């Protein structure tokens, strides 16, 4: 979490922060690289990845260093650096068998 | 014709002519045949062989003499036979064929008993029938005995009849359900402690010492056994697998502030989900106390009974008992209320004497008015009691309220909350599954797994990772906030933390070691030795569709493995150690860590609630309470609703 408390819904056209990041998204089989702005909502990235891999977004989880990524998060709120990795996990269910 | 028949054999050696004839002919060294033809020896009408008197031949007489002794010889032979039989009894290995589901057959060794194969007796079959209920008693089935004990069966078969009867189990079930289910039960049959034949023999000879066993065998033997319906059969299967102990709720109140000093004998009660809030009126605690206090009043003198620390202590001016004391017309320790006593001579405490009655202090006697004084004093005594018990009731009620909230781990939703939740469910259940519900961090799909009835999800009702992770996050966040903790880079370690359930799946690849999670702890100020500063770190783990919880208490150097199904913990605990080693390096001293071996978690009653138990076990640990507080119920509906409500609200609701 960033300490300056930047709002989640920051518009991409926000001036000074238009720096781009390279982010790797991997689900252990595939690796997809994305280049996004620091302030872009990660929903875009997640949707793109799911479209590309043919996954249902409701059944995958994006994690960054053990922290679940919400669609409304952006790289800045997650304190991401250039070259960081997002892990993609399948939904787990359990009840006991 | 003077032909002899067999009946005359007895006369052969009577010294009459025949024997003489043989001697004479022997002297003549004639063959017996030629001798037959000697005229005059026998009055014969014909010499043809067909008409020979066979009985008169020496061979025949020899044969006849042997035959005459036949019973004796036969007897001797039998005696010999019986004797050898007694010496050499056949050793038989008893085995029981087991049919497996795939049709293969296998034999299971039962015992090596002495069986009597040579002589089929009724006793032998009875023995078997007496032995067989032992099998049945240990099996989970009650299957009718196929044939009555009086049915004659050959000995060789009788040794196998126990086997055939147990096999009968299969057709009964297989016929009605079309399944071959009985084989696992057969495998569960424990081998008898002593060879059955010996036990039965002991039983029959009356020398059996274990009367209880004898009774049990007789009871089972005489019991009317009815065939199980398929439903009952599967029910019995299920009940045999689920632990009965999970029904028992230990009413452990030892951590309450007003706990009794003597250890409570744990009361075992069955609590049903719908009734756990209902109290029988006569079991209300205040009534207990009321009765106790009343009896105690009668038994003891009021002077010694009323506790001065309550009544006279100025430190409790707002105690509910205070006004009672002031308004009570009679108090032995406040002589100002008693008009008869001079104020200059207050009666010292503890010197009250009983007059006539125990329980009535001497100073309540008014000698000036003897007729009414006793009555008055008794009445006033009652008044005091009444006031006091009222006060006790009042204080007990407040106590009872406190107890109630502690006893229930999660309180059920209030009516209003339930209505709101149902309204939300109606609003969201048909929306697309990835929609987040009411601005929370859980989606419609997540809630479908938690509340399948409300959100029209799969009846499997298996919790998904989002529910477990988010719920634990809410709990730990509450705990962090309560201790004023905030995650700050380079800051101190959090008191509590929960890792996402993906932690477990990430460390599964042994080639990668712990690299996928190497930043996880670091991000949360738990990396390296900082890990040891935390109180509790939770790891929800979903392995093979089963949720469980590993909690490490780094400060206490403890590892708790909470599993509502009692699976093996070694694999998981070893992995946790591996991870800790990767974090702590060589400073990890495994010897100082204790792993709870006994499964502490309450056991689930079905095959769908383990996620709920993982959540509740986390709650129990964070609250520092006994794991027995988690009460199992079918479906855990109340807990599910409470979890859902907390998840939607995004903060704890009554949990902490």
UniProtKB/TrEMBL annotation, chain A:
PROSITE patterns: UBIQUITIN_2 (PS50053). The lineage of its organism: Eukaryota, Fungi, Dikarya, Ascomycota, Pezizomycotina. Residues 19-95 form the Ubiquitin-like domain. Coiled coil: none annotated. It comes from the Eukaryota. CDD domains: Ubl_Smt3_like. Pfam families: Rad60-SLD. Residues 1-21 are annotated as: Disordered. This is Ubiquitin-like protein-like protein SMT3.
UniProtKB/TrEMBL annotation, chain B:
The keyword Repeat does not apply. SUPFAM superfamilies: Cysteine proteinases. Residues 440-621 form the Ubiquitin-like protease family profile domain. It holds the Pfam family Peptidase_C48. The keyword Cell inner membrane does not apply. GO terms for biological process: protein desumoylation; proteolysis. Keywords: Hydrolase, Protease, Thiol protease. GO terms for molecular function: deSUMOylase activity. Residues 335-362 are annotated as: Disordered. One of its GO terms (cellular component) is nucleus. PROSITE patterns: ULP_PROTEASE. InterPro entries: Papain-like_cys_pep_sf, Peptidase_C48_C. PANTHER family: GH15225P-RELATED, SENTRIN/SUMO-SPECIFIC PROTEASE. Belongs to the peptidase C48 family. This is Cysteine proteinase.
